[in-house]
Design goal:
By secondary structure, the protein is mainly α. It has 4 helices and no strands. The mean pLDDT is 79.
């Protein structure tokens, strides 16, 4: 059973712990705001590059298919030529999609804010834990 002095020593630490917690939350909110701005720029950049590359790839693929069909149309190997074009374009599309997924999965938003919250939690735990006897 805890003694009265240990209970009161914990109570006296509450105001200082609350003040430290409020200051920490204010600083973490500022850090989160900065990191959200960086995350928005990162996501916007990825989206813009993806859109540009997707449109360019579609237009290029369409033009390449027309070129291959026109080039090989009068030969007996036209199905082979169009099939090879399909295979190459499919491999490029799969590679680009894989790279996009890897990049999206490896991205960790707000890394500094999360790290600071972990440190804050550890600090508050130490402040609120009664000292050993």
């Amino acid at each position: 059973m805890p003694s009265a002095s240990s209970i009161f020593s914990g109570v006296t630490r509450i105001p200082s712990s609350a003040a430290a917690m409020l200051r920490g939350l204010d600083h973490r909110a500022e850090l989160a705001t900065l990191e959200l701005g960086e995350a928005r720029e990162h996501a916007t950049g990825i989206a813009a590059l993806f859109l540009i590359s997707a449109v360019a790839a579609l237009l290029t693929g369409f033009a390449v298919n027309l070129f291959i069909a026109a080039l090989w149309w009068d030969t007996p190997h036209r199905l082979l030529a169009v099939g090879a074009a399909i295979a190459v374009q499919g491999a490029l599309a799969a590679g680009a999609a894989g790279a996009c997924l890897r990049r999206a999965r490896s991205w960790r938003p707000l890394p500094e804010t999360i790290d600071q919250f972990k440190k804050d939690s550890q600090c508050l735990h130490e402040l609120l834990t009664p000292p050993p006897r």
